[in-house]
Design a protein that fits this description.
Two copies of one chain form a homodimer. With 323 residues, the first copy, chain A, is α/β, with parallel strands linked by helices. Helix content of chain A is 41%, strand content 20%. In chain A, 50% of the residues are buried. At the A-B interface, helix 4 and helix 5 of A face helix 4 and helix 5 of B.
Chain lengths: 323, 323
């Protein structure tokens, strides 16, 4: 079995690649794992400390380069994880870049799947940025997407395309709206949600961190491990389990800044918490406050997707993986 | 004021053009109608019996031809009615054509609006084809779109783009999901909904008609007059009345085939009804039964959009306009 991961050089892409190699493939039917023969990681560029493995092939380039994509996927691809995108603040700062990569680039990847002779499975990472505006207190599986960012708009367009390509029999698609991933390792990226990782990660590394929102601010989050598990589970479920609706809200937990700092104190003591300084940034606050923080995820629960146990467990898992 | 109508050669486009000429323009503020100086009708082709008026300019071509669109809109455009699209059965039969025209072509029209120095108003005709699958009994203003056709998918993508272009300050956009238009004049088009017009229009003209669905089949409909009124009202409302949510379900009425035939009998006698033959077509039935037939349109009602009084009034209006 040959698997493509777009955005394969990113944090989640690399984690997903490691998980797939450790499992040796994906189980398209219960108990029937197809052996992984090649894992193609496609991205604009790759960091030097990338995963090296005999089954992994790296292809660096632009998703708008259809020929390169076709070449990367030859002679065939059985499954696609489409993770690549311009992130939230990036798509907001450069509207045309977001449209090109997140819509036109995605259409190229969908066409790769469509051209395969055997219906490939296709997992798309969508986002809670699908929701915004005057939201209900709790987002349900049936709540209409109302994105309030270009990134969210482009993600919802991607969901619609995956759904229609699936209905047409071009691919066997599945979309998971991932919660905000916390704790991200490394340096902050351009995501407005980055502070929730920073206020945990930096103090644990003995560094200062800035929190740009008030302590009572809540966020709907999932750990990197659970996010990777969700993507693999989305891929392994039978199409009949998904049914006609190929979009779901992935399970997360609702955590406030106060709760995150309390968990940090329980894990690393009060000196860690004292490294966090509050300094409001109204631009970031405005974006973060537009996001939904409470969901019911009945459909995901019924289909066997699993969220995190709590913020303490998330912090402990981060320490283990960092250590 | 200069107004662009894409799909200006179509049935609704021509009706809308006549209505705009009769009004002399659109009122951007209550009581302050801007005088219409030029009405640009853009379409692939125009019928010989098209509306002729000194204020009307016809431009025939492809929406994918960006230069032609720019040329058609020079020196400036104050308002755009974007009606042009590949219709439902057409977009289903030729997926790539639907994507090119309904998505890429629409993006060209949106870019025309974005390039204007003064924020242009932009009305987009969306459709009840936004909904399908396992629907609630009554579609609410907050019901999530779940299109089950490529046409519906492309219409929802258009709504998302209009919303995001509006949020970004590129255009002042408004989307109205129109009910199925009944009675359409002329010959059937490729729309699966065409029979509801046929079973009224043909008998009134003394011709036979075929109904491909059972008598109890219901449809959510609006007359051509109300559809045109809705588009003009959508354009004339202030942006602040629309608020951040630029998409709404237009008002319609729910009518069954049985009710339509009873109204036909009241208007034209039993011999008219006897010209309708039932001959089931499972392909059409499947598409029609996937459409929602009941809506609450509280938001449209509150904003002053008006639906039809009933099917009898729709038939009488058709007879008046045909006569």
């Amino acid at each position: 079995m040959r698997i493509l991961i777009t955005g394969g050089g990113g944090f989640i892409g690399q984690r997903l690649a490691r998980a797939l190699l450790a499992r040796g493939g994906i189980a398209e039917e219960p108990g029937a794992a197809s052996k992984l023969t090649e894992l193609v990681l496609f991205d604009r560029a790759f960091a030097p400390d990338r995963l090296e493995d005999e089954h992994v092939r790296y292809v660096a380039g632009d998703m708008l380069d259809r020929d390169l994509l076709v070449h990367a996927c030859a002679p065939r691809i059985d499954a696609v994880f489409h993770l690549a995108s311009v992130v939230s603040a990036g798509a907001e700062a450069d509207f045309d870049l977001g449209m090109r990569v997140n819509v036109d680039g995605m259409r190229n990847v969908l066409e790769i799947g469509r051209a395969e002779p055997i219906l490939p499975r296709f997992v798309f990472t969508s986002s809670v940025a699908a929701f915004g505006g005057d939201l209900p207190d709790v987002v349900l599986d049936t709540t209409a997407p109302t994105p309030q960012s270009s990134y969210g708009t482009q993600k919802v367009i991607g969901e619609l395309l995956v759904s229609d390509y699936t209905r047409k029999g071009f691919i066997d698609g599945r979309c998971v709206r991932l919660p905000t991933i916390v704790v991200r390792p490394g340096k902050p990226n351009r995501a407005a949600s980055g502070f929730m990782s920073s206020i945990i990660r930096e103090p644990l590394e003995g560094k200062p961190a800035v929190c740009p929102v008030p302590p009572e601010t809540q966020m709907w989050i999932a750990s990197p491990d659970r996010a990777v598990d969700m993507l693999i589970h989305a891929m392994e479920l039978r199409g009949s389990a998904w049914g006609w609706n190929r979009i779901l809200n992935g399970p997360g937990i609702t955590v406030s800044v106060t709760q995150a700092l309390a968990a940090l104190e329980r894990t690393a003591g009060s000196e860690a918490v004292q490294r966090v300084r509050f300094e409001r940034d109204s631009d970031i606050e405005k974006i973060v406050l537009s996001w939904p923080v409470r969901f019911t995820t009945e459909r995901a629960d019924r289909l066997g997707f699993e969220g995190d146990a709590g913020i303490d467990a998330i912090i402990r898992a981060f320490l283990r993986s960092a250590g």
